[in-house]
Amino acid sequence: MTRTQLLLRLLFKAAWVRKDRAFTALVSVAVVATIATAALTIYSNLEGNLSREFRGFGANVVVTKTSGALSPDELTNIHKIIGSAGEIVPVGYAIATETTSNAKIVVGGADIDTFRRLNSSWSFSNTGQGSALVGGRVDETIAHGADLHLSFGKTSAAVKPAGFFHSGSDDDSRIYLPLDDFQRLTGVHPNTALVRVEGKPQQIQNTIASLRAALPNAEVKPVRQITQAQTAVVGKTRSVVLASSAVVVILIMLCMVATFTGSVLERRKDFAVMKALGASNRTVNFLFASEAALLALAGSAAGYILGCGIAFWIGKANFDAAILPQPLLLFPVLLGSVALALIASTAPLRLLQQIQPAGILRGE
Amino acid sequence: MFLRLLFESFRRQKRRKSVALLAIALGMSIATAMIAVGNDIGDKINQELRSLGANLVVTPIEDTLDVNIGGVNLKPASEGAFINEQDLIKIKGIFWGHNIKGYAPFLSDRQKIQTRNGSVDAEMIGTYFAQPLRYGNEQFTTGVRSVNPWWKVEGAWPQDYGDFPEQLPPDVLAGNKLAQQAGLNLGDQIEIGGRKLRISGILNSGGDEDQAIVAPLHIAQDILHQPNAVRRVTVSALTKPEDAFARKDPDKMSPAVRDRWYCSPYANSIAYQIHEVLPNARVEQIRPVEQNQGKVLSRVTGLMLLLSVAALLAAALAVSAAMAATILERRQEVGLMKSLGAGNSAVASLFLTEAAFLALAGGLIGFLAGAVLAHRIGQSIFGSAIVVHPVVLAVVLFAAVLVTFLGSAGAVRKAMQFDPAVVLRGDA
Fold it and tell me: Is residue B10 part of a domain?
């Protein structure tokens, strides 16, 4: 039997004869690798996943032309900068008089479908037939569900409501008409664009900077309470996840090291027998270390797969979006686990080397 | 005899026991820290979400429509209805008064503003900045400084009340755009409606207020000749995310269900309670804020919950593995005891009692360490402590005993299945 064959046989037998011991070591490594993989995968995806939740707040940037209307070129420019994930609604405003009550009402013109999509948090109640979106207060004080007769000076029209909405803002005192109808009645073209920029806080800031550079004649204003809250919440959540994952991973690593060290110390007799049979310190170290490394490699590979599964499941369960495995994590997780196992299994050997094998075998 | 065996086992196997103790303590500090952080994260993030500002708005029912385009208000202050400023304090007296983090009243009108360069037309807004108020025995401060935390002021915030002698006119804020347009600087004097005012700060709100003068509420009421009048109040309240139950109509509920609805801090029930104390006011959710903050909050708390569950399972497995490892190494002891005539139950009870002692000690140490960790996380990230509820101690001790038993039980049974003679010969 060659030396390599003997070594392999020793390694294999060590694991096979004491299956339960090998198994507990394997479990402790796998647990570390699982938690580390799951926590790091979630952490690296968190900013994007959580930022998506701020989509429902509506427009986070408002572009207003300082004089005149927004030109088609400018609107195309905005489209280009915010990309396909964002949303843009050009809006024009005018004041009308409701002829039956003689009340002044602010009327906005916008693409009704995109406008509704942008303000998905408002509560809409549909009546069906008409084309206008009527604010809750307009309905309560003037319309009471009926048609509105609006006069814009030279032109006038009877407006049928398509639905009523409650927003909790000034918009509740307004009526929104489809942009074509609005332009036909008032001759006013949109000078404001409500924009929702998608992305992480830093990406949103960059997009705002690009919009400002591309639209020198317009004012580009972030809706500060939304961008600020997003930055605060996303940042703090990331920190909490990072801090608690770090705590968990470090503690569970210590736990694994304790288990490994404990089981090596319990094998004093193996160690003494090998020494008594003439093995050098180097050979014994090598044997124990390769056993630990193999166990760690198997345990961490299983842990990586399980960790990716857990991260995927948490993404599905919590964010309705899959958190995909990060192949880049595989190498650090494997390497880290093996390194830890090596340290945990070889450190106690130093202690044992100071004792005479005969002493250990006698049970001292 | 049993006690002696137990005592000697701890005395003679200090190293082995301390490894097991360390594993249990580490596992349980993970449990404590994660339970504490997961439990408190909702409150902490809810506080962060208050930077979205108010989530409820109160307006007079009888009021006419707002006519507001691009920050220009075309409705005269004399038109429409008002809320009485004196009544606002009642908002603090509702059932969920403690959840009201603050409110800010507003009264505004377009005014001619005399500056040293001439005159401009601009909006004048009256509000509370940081108004000290008292409700019963409770002293609190409220106003835009807490309700609209995104307002930035260069210079100084004005005082809400103060001694304003003739030579020292009341302080106000000038919106940054108005200041730029009208050439207003810090310390400049302006005059509105015959009243002299001093600009103490330049306001940058990112909203329509940037084109306005923002004054203490009572000064604005004075100038507009509308004593005690308030047009709109925004309220910032800590609320529970809305669900199907929250959207139900309280007037159609049975008394028991209605009580449950009334006693849940939904935005709807808080709005209902404010309407009860201010019957002439309409209370509405500021929907983008109220509807979405719940969603964000539930995502964050959900994430922490799932992470905690994963961490707890991992800690349980790690502790079980550590316990199993220490007991499996002791099969020779089991063999010796059995060959000396000990029954399975005697051996098992010795091992399990040892495990229970280790679990209780490890659980206690782990709880203390975990509490310190949670406290540290709270302080460093949120600037406020995460307090660990004493109930967690009971949970952690119970979990420690359960997990160590689970880890030990399998290993003890395994160790007992071997023939004592074989084990003692070292062949097993």
Answer: yes
Suggest the residue from A226, A237, A270 to mutate for an interface test with chain B (most B CBs closer than 10 A): A237
Mean pLDDT of B163-191: 83
- Give residue A214's domain range: 60-222
For residues A159 and A242, state if they share a domain: no
Number of domains into which chain A is organized: 2
Residue B290 counted as domain residue: no
Which chain A residue's Cα is nearest to B34? A244
For residue A227, being part of any structural domain is answered with no
Q: How far apart are CA A227 and CA A197, in angstroms?
A: 10
Are B39 and B145 within one domain?
no
Number of structural domains in chain B: 2
Low-confidence ranges of chain A (pLDDT < 70): 1, 127, 363-364
pTM to 2 decimals?
0.80
Say whether both A135 and A268 belong to one domain.
Answer: no
Where a domain ends, among A203, A222, A241?
Answer: A222
Nearest Cα to Cα of residue B226 among B143, B115, B131, B105 = B105
Give the model's confidence band at B124: pLDDT under 50 very low, under 70 low, under 90 confident, else very high. Answer: very high
Q: Which of chain A's residues have a Cβ under 8 Å away from the Cβ of B322?
A: 24, 28, 255, 258-259, 262
What's the average model confidence in pLDDT over B371-394? Answer: 87
Within an 8 Å CB–CB cutoff, is residue B56 touching chain A?
A: yes
Of B64, B288, B324, the CB nearest to A24: B324
* pLDDT over 70 percentage in chain B: 97
Residue B358: give the domain boundaries. 2-46+295-425
Residue B234, classified by CB atoms within 10 Å of its CB into exposed (0-12), middle (13-18) or buried (19+), is: buried
Cβ–Cβ contact A77 with B under 8 A:
no
Question: Cβ–Cβ of B289/A57 closer than 8 Å?
Answer: yes
**Which residues from B are below 8 Å from A21, CB to CB?**
325, 328-329
Asked if residue B148 and residue B250 are part of one domain, the reply reads yes
ipTM value for the complex: 0.80
The candidate with the shortest Cα–Cα distance to B193, out of B121, B268, B258, B251, is B121
Smallest Cβ–Cβ distance between A259 and the set B66, B302, B322 belongs to B322
Span B184-206, pLDDT tens digits: 889 888 989 888 899 999 999 88
From residue B103, give the alpha-carbon distance in Å to each of A295, A360, B58, B88. 61, 76, 10, 9
Same domain, residue pair A158 and A35:
no
The Cα–Cα gap between B199 and B226 comes to: 23
**Looking at the partner chain, which of B30, B307, B317 has a beta carbon nearest the beta carbon of A251?**
B30
How many contacts, defined by CB atoms under 8 Å, are there between A and B?
249
Residue B2 scores a pLDDT above 90:
no
Same domain, B269 and B409: no
Nearest Cβ partner of A236 from B20, B45, B57?
B45
- What is the rounded average pLDDT for all residues in chain B? 85
pLDDT at B427: 54
Predicted confidence at residue A364, as pLDDT, reads 58
Task: Dump pLDDT digits (tens) for B338-356.
Answer: 888 888 888 888 888 888 9
Q: Is residue B146 located within the same domain as residue B227?
A: yes
pLDDT band for B42, please (50, 70, 90 cuts): confident
In the listed set A193, A222, A251, which residue is the last one of a domain according to the structure? Answer: A222
Q: Which of residues 311-350 of B touch A (CB under 8 A)?
A: 311, 314-315, 317-322, 324-326, 328-329
Other C-beta atoms closer than 10 Å to the C-beta of B163 total 6
* Nearest alpha carbon to residue A311 among A16, A43, A52: A43
Residue A356 forms part of a structural domain: yes
B133 shares a domain with B272: yes
B138 touches chain A (CB under 8 A): no
B68 vs A: CB within 8 A: yes
Length of chain B: 428
Residue A98 near residue A203, CB atoms below 8 Å: no
* pLDDT at position A194: 92
Calpha distance A334→B323 (Å, rounded): 25
Residue B83 near residue B281, CB atoms below 8 Å: yes
Residue with tokens 């392999």: A8
Q: What chain B residue is nearest to A55 in terms of C-alpha separation?
A: B292
The predicted structure's pLDDT at residue B394:
92
pLDDT-derived band at B166 (thresholds 50, 70, 90) equals: low
Alpha carbon distance B88, B128 (integer Å): 12
